[in-house]
């Protein structure tokens, strides 16, 4: 039996039913912990999303017949990999299929923050009179030679770099696998300190791990250029939100954009009036074709494992 914790897109649901296994399907909303436990009980495969925390207790409650947890996301910090390994459960994610959509969104946030799109929208809706002005809502020209720093040059980071290069930006990146001084085309790899010091816009693309929690803390923000911008489409925990709010309030950063939050889906109320901040509700991969592809890849992993074949995109 395949347990699906939440309704996926229509195309992904069609694929689920075409697999021909018995299914147990949750609702559009996230399951409660009790619903998740009941849903997993007796399942051979579970398709879950990043709103479900999969830990040792849940895996134990699911029972020994559980073979795979397929996460419909590229990030998998919601799954306890050590517990899954101990339980003999394969864990898979959905890399690759969401790179372009996520990079599009990250770059949309770069432009929204630097060109003050949300602020302009709010101004018009406020009903206050406005008139074109040479000093009105002026922001950073990214395409006048500004530098973008990509923190974490994986597949999504590289896709963001391609967009930035098309906008005539200079691009720096950090990567675990590329030593500073190396290049990838026009992208130059540097260490984190250099990236923070030389970037006009820093975009975060690292997974959330114990090593990257609060990677962007007060010290990292202070090391950024005065007037720089921060964009986070990775995971909320990579950025210390309280330190970011301070940096925006003090004016050290001119703006920022967040798609992900430390206490998600709760949003720290102080973020709501932090100056220059653009917010989106974890929608970086929310393209139609992308969401279909994420669900289908998760289900292809399930089909492979239930048929005794290796998973397509295992993690850990
Ligand atoms: C979304 O945040 C994902 O990890 O796919
Ligand atoms: C502004 O609207 C311009 O025409 O430059």
Short recap of the structure:
With 316 residues, the chain is α/β, with parallel strands linked by helices.
Strand order of the largest sheet: 8-9-7-6-10-11-12-13
Task: Kindly state the percentage of residues in helix.
Answer: 25-40%
CATH class of the largest domain: Alpha Beta
Name the average pLDDT: 98
CATH fold label of the largest domain: Rossmann fold
End-to-end separation: 24 Å
Q: How many structural domains does the protein architecture include?
A: 2
How many helix segments?
12
Topology pattern, helix = H, strand = E: EHEHEHEHEHHEHEEEHEHEHEHEH
- Chain oligomer state: single chain
Q: What is the CATH-assigned architecture of the largest domain?
A: 3-Layer(aba) Sandwich
Based on CA inertia axes, which overall geometry fits? globular
Which sheet architecture does the biggest sheet show?
Answer: 8 strands, mixed
Chemical compounds bound to the protein: glyoxylic acid
Computed structural class: alpha/beta
Rg, Cα atoms, Å: 21 Å
Number of separate strands: 13
Strand portion: 15-25%
Task: Point out poorly predicted stretches.
Answer: none
Q: What is the CATH superfamily label of the largest domain? A: NAD(P)-binding Rossmann-like Domain
Domain D-isomer specific 2-hydroxyacid dehydrogenase NAD-binding: 107-284
GO molecular function, one term: hydroxypyruvate reductase [NAD(P)H] activity
Keywords: NAD, Oxidoreductase
Family: Belongs to the D-isomer specific 2-hydroxyacid dehydrogenase family.
């Amino acid at each position: 039996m395949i347990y699906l914790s939440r309704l996926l897109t229509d195309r992904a649901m069609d694929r689920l039913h075409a697999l021909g296994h018995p299914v147990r399907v949750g609702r559009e909303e996230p399951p409660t912990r009790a619903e998740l436990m009941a849903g997993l009980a007796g399942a051979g495969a579970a398709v879950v999303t990043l709103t479900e925390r999969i830990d040792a207790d849940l895996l134990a409650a699911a029972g020994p017949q559980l073979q795979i947890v397929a996460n419909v996301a590229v990030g998998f910090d919601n799954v306890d990999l050590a517990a899954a390994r101990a339980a003999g459960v394969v864990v898979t994610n959905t890399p690759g299929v969401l790179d372009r959509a996520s990079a599009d969104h990250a770059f949309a946030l770069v432009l929204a923050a630097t060109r003050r799109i949300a602020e302009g929208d709010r101004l018009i809706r406020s009903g206050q009179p406005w008139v074109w002005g040479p000093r009105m809502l002026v922001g950073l020209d990214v395409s006048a030679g500004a530098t973008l720093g990509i923190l974490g040059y994986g597949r999504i980071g590289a896709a963001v770099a391609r967009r930035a290069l098309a906008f005539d930006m200079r691009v720096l990146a950090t990567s675990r696998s590329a030593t500073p001084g190396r290049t990838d085309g026009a992208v130059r790899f540097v260490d984190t300190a250099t990236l923070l010091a030389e970037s006009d816009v820093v975009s975060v693309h690292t997974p959330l791990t114990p090593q990257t929690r609060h990677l962007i803390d007060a010290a990292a923000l202070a090391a950024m250029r005065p007037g720089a911008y921060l964009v986070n489409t990775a995971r909320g925990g990579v950025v210390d939100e309280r330190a970011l709010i301070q940096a925006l309030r003090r004016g050290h950063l001119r703006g920022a954009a967040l798609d992900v939050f430390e206490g998600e889906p709760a949003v720290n109320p102080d973020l709501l009036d932090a100056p220059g901040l653009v917010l989106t509700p974890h929608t970086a991969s929310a393209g139609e074709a992308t969401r279909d592809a994420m669900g289908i890849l998760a289900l292809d992993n399930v089909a492979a494992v239930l048929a005794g074949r290796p998973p397509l995109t295992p993690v850990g």
